[in-house]
């Protein structure tokens, strides 16, 4: 756990050994503690170098130990730090790879820090619901005073030579605990302003706010008092549901890589095809972002757009985004895709158009080319059936902007081969995405769950709510944008087009169909009415809110909308009632959760973790709430079930509010913890 050797006669080299990231689990802490004591008591040792195995200094505390009693065994991290800092022999940290969280604190407890130029250091625990903040690369760390020296050479050798050179030198001013924090002018005003800003950005997350309190303590209190305050604050965070939710997200983010298909095919038994060239077809916003993402991942990309003016504009935008990096060529001819290993289709969301395109691509492309569609809702299998090799067709559902959003839904149809899925998943990894493999159904996972969410939001408007009220409740919960601001941003016409395609609105609706009912179920035409009036959201300058110009970003309340809703209610004999924030949250969120349980039961998602990763990384679900399925567990499954039963009783014509059978089965079996839910799924399959 901590290897101890003596080098150059007088330097003790301690190497942390706990792959893959040298996390500081109990045995490592114990090993470090013993090694420092050994170095202190060995008269031949005059200095110490601390390093990590395999080019990695330390990834911090072992997150798997959090909330686990075994983490209480062995010395505490702070005890290891104190022993190191008070050592009478200089301790030099040799930082390669990364020193994160407790790993950086360990380095800070050393008297000197030498970092490799490519090393990253930081305190990213805020992502785990603990404090503090961001990561920086070695050069910046040097400027900030976190490192004493940066090297391009072998870091451990440099540190060994350095340690030798400081043997016997005084250490008092090298101990961080002895260094006073330089006083700031207007300290109080500074922290009050910082707190105000952090609170407004934290959207209900405690860790960033508590972080400011801790920094204030560090800057204003004597060292030991600051440490005491930090301990109290950390204890509060550790015991909060938010830290558990964030730590769950850390593992959910990585769980997608261990994908499985209902056929039994899995991540560890399938080989990905080798992909070095790609074509992107259709250069609207999505196609441009996908081109950038693929090029940044090192693929040679040909970007194809048949409309010349769109092609020229895309070339300008993509080149600007890539800033001269990346290999991209442009063409208006589909034949340019003939020799590529992968095609990503990103044309308009129109089944007939996509079918035609897939037929063409199948005849143009060389055998073995993987054909991927970026559709967000359409049937992958129908597209596959237009091709020569349906096993080589998958969905790669990117999220806008595609070069920035972390999520990638990899959609397999009944005929997609495991190799095709493995290839898309590996590509996702190369692009730095959180990739999740999901089955084929309308909307896949993310958009299928979005549908009942939007539906509830519309129903709430019919019943008396305003977009402002609904959005405020959701934003207070932690979403970066409420549902109405979000749909204004993505464009109301997107859903309108899909509803037309589904025959829910437009010319295909049979004459005499009641306005607020489809197939015997409640339906709200509000979104359609908005689009019929040209209110598409930000792009048209008017949607659920008013914007100063088309493309404007600042939403203002629109008196027109208030009148529109009042007239709509009168026309449809609806009586507005006061709606409480709690009802908004329960109806919108429970509707999402309920669909999540159905998706799990249908085998469309392989695990609740996969669903949660999709919602956190693609739909803005707040990380400190862990994703919809985790949140359901935190609220209590019985309470979610009771809520859904209550709302379904009040709205019997809304099938999305009818509790799912899996939720009922889970509650009936005593609401097991989330990692056991899969055992209750129909046709249970193990994926982890
Ligand atoms: C009192 C305490 C105070 C203290 O301040 C608290 C802390 O230090 S909090 C900690 C503060 N530290 C952080 O917040 C750093 C969190 N970690 C990271 O940011 C990235 O993992 C890192 C940059 C280190 C490597 O990225 P990469 O090269 O892309 O690799 P990867 O990401 O795929 O991970 C590989 C495997 O290692 C696993 N694993 C990783 N870290 C930990 C851990 N600390 N623990 C346990 N496991 C960890 C990870 O799950 C994965 O396992 P699997 O089974 O293969 O799925």
Automatic annotation (TrEMBL):
Recorded hits in InterPro entries, A to Z, give:
3-OHacyl-CoA_DH_CS, 3-OHacyl-CoA_DH_NAD-bd, 3HC_DH_C, 6-PGluconate_DH-like_C_sf, ClpP/crotonase-like_dom_sf, Enoyl-CoA_hyd/isom_CS, Enoyl-CoA_hydra/iso, NAD(P)-bd_dom_sf
Q: Output the Pfam families linked to this UniProt entry.
A: 3HCDH (PF00725), 3HCDH_N (PF02737), ECH_1 (PF00378)
Q: What is its pathway?
A: Lipid metabolism; fatty acid beta-oxidation
Membrane-spanning ranges: none
Principal cellular location given in the protein's record: other
Q: Name one GO cellular component term.
A: peroxisome
- Key word Phosphoprotein present: no
Q: Which terms in the Gene Ontology molecular function aspect does this entry carry? A: (3S)-3-hydroxyacyl-CoA dehydrogenase (NAD+) activity; delta(3)-delta(2)-enoyl-CoA isomerase activity; enoyl-CoA hydratase activity; NAD+ binding
Compartments reported by the entry: Peroxisome
Q: Which family does it belong to?
A: Belongs to the enoyl-CoA hydratase/isomerase family.
The UniProt keywords, alphabetically, are:
Fatty acid metabolism, Isomerase, Lipid metabolism, Lyase, Multifunctional enzyme, NAD, Oxidoreductase, Peroxisome
The signal peptide annotation in the UniProt record is: none
Q: Where is the 3-hydroxyacyl-CoA dehydrogenase C-terminal domain?
A: 443-547, 584-670
Please give the organism. Muraenolepis orangiensis
Which reaction does this chain catalyze? a (3S)-3-hydroxyacyl-CoA + NAD(+) = a 3-oxoacyl-CoA + NADH + H(+); (3S)-hydroxyhexadecanoyl-CoA + NAD(+) = 3-oxohexadecanoyl-CoA + NADH + H(+); a (3E)-enoyl-CoA = a 4-saturated (2E)-enoyl-CoA; (3E,5Z)-octadienoyl-CoA = (2E,5Z)-octadienoyl-CoA
Assembly with partners or alone = Monomer.
Question: What name has this protein been given in UniProt?
Answer: Peroxisomal bifunctional enzyme
GO BP, sorted A to Z: fatty acid beta-oxidation
Q: Could you tell me the EC number(s) of this protein?
A: 1.1.1.35, 4.2.1.17, 5.3.3.8
């Amino acid at each position: 756990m901590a290897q101890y050797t003596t080098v150059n006669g007088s330097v003790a080299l301690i190497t942390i050994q706990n792959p893959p990231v040298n996390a500081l689990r109990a045995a490592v802490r114990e090993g470090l503690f013993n090694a420092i004591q050994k170095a202190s008591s060995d008269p031949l040792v005059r200095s110490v170098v601390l390093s990590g195995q395999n080019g990695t200094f330390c990834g911090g505390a072992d997150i798997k130990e959090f909330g686990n009693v075994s983490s209480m065994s062995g010395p505490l991290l702070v005890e290891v730090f104190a022993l190191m800092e008070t050592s009478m022999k200089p301790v030099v940290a040799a930082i390669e790879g990364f020193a994160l969280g407790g790993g950086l604190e360990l380095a800070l407890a050393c008297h000197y820090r030498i970092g490799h130029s490519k090393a990253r250091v930081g305190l990213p625990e805020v992502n785990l619901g603990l404090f503090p903040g961001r990561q920086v690369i070695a050069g910046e760390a040097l400027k900030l005073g976190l490192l004493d020296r940066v090297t391009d050479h072998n870091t451990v050798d440099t540190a060994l030579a350095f340690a030798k050179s400081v043997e016997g030198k005084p250490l008092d001013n090298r101990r961080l605990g002895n260094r006073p924090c330089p006083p700031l002018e207007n300290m109080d005003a500074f922290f009050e302003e910082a707190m105000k800003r952090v609170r407004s950005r934290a959207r209900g997350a405690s860790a960033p706010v508590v972080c400011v309190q801790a920094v204030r303590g560090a800057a204003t209190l004597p060292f030991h008092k600051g440490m005491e305050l930090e301990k109290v604050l950390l204890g509060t965070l550790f015991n909060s549901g938010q830290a558990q939710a964030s730590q769950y997200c850390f593992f959910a983010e990585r769980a997608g890589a261990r994908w499985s298909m209902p056929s039994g095919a899995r991540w560890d038994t399938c080989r990905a095809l080798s992909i070095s060239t790609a074509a992107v077809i259709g250069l609207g916003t999505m196609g441009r972002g996908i081109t950038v993402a693929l090029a940044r991942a090192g693929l040679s990309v040909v970007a194809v757009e048949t409309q010349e003016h769109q092609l020229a504009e895309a070339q300008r935008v993509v080149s600007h985004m890539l800033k001269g990096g990346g290999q991209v060529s442009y063409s208006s001819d589909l034949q340019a895709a003939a020799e590529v290993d992968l095609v990503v289709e990103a044309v308009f969301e129109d089944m007939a158009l996509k079918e035609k395109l897939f037929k063409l691509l199948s005849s143009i492309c060389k055998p073995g080319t993987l054909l991927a569609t970026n559709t967000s809702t359409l049937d992958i299998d129908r597209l596959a059936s237009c091709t020569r090799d349906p096993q080589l067709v998958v969905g790669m559902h990117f999220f806008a902007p595609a070069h920035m959003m972390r999520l990638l839904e990899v959609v397999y149809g009944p005929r997609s081969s495991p190799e095709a899925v493995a290839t898309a998943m590996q590509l996702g990894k190369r692009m730095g995405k959180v990739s999740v493999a999901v089955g084929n159904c309308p909307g896949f996972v993310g958009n299928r769950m979005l549908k009942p969410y939007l539906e509830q939001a519309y129903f709430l408007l019919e019943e008396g709510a305003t977009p402002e009220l609904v959005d405020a409740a959701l934003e207070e919960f932690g979403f970066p944008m409420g549902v109405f601001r979000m749909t204004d941003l993505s464009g109301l016409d997107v859903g309108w087009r899909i509803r037309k395609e589904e025959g829910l609105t437009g010319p295909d609706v049979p004459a005499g169909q009641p306005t607020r009912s489809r197939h015997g179920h409640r339906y709200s035409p509000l979104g359609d009415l908005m689009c019929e009036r040209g209110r598409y959201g930000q792009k048209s300058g008017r949607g659920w809110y008013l914007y100063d110009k088309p493309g404007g970003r600042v939403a203002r309340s629109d008196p027109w909308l208030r009148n529109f809703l009042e007239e709509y209610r009168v026309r449809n004999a609806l009586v507005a009632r006061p709606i409480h924030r709690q009802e908004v949250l329960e109806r919108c969120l429970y509707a999402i959760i309920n669909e999540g349980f159905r998706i799990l039961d249908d085998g469309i998602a392989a695990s609740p973790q996969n669903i949660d990763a999709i919602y956190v990384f693609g739909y803005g679900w707040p990380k400190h709430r862990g994703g919809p399925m985790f949140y359901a567990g935190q609220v209590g499954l019985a309470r979610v079930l009771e809520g859904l039963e209550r709302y379904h009783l009040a709205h019997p014509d809304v099938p999305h509010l009818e509790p799912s059978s899996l939720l009922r089965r889970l509650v009936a079996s005593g609401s097991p913890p989330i990692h056991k839910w899969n055992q209750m799924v129909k046709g249970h399959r193990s994926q982890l």
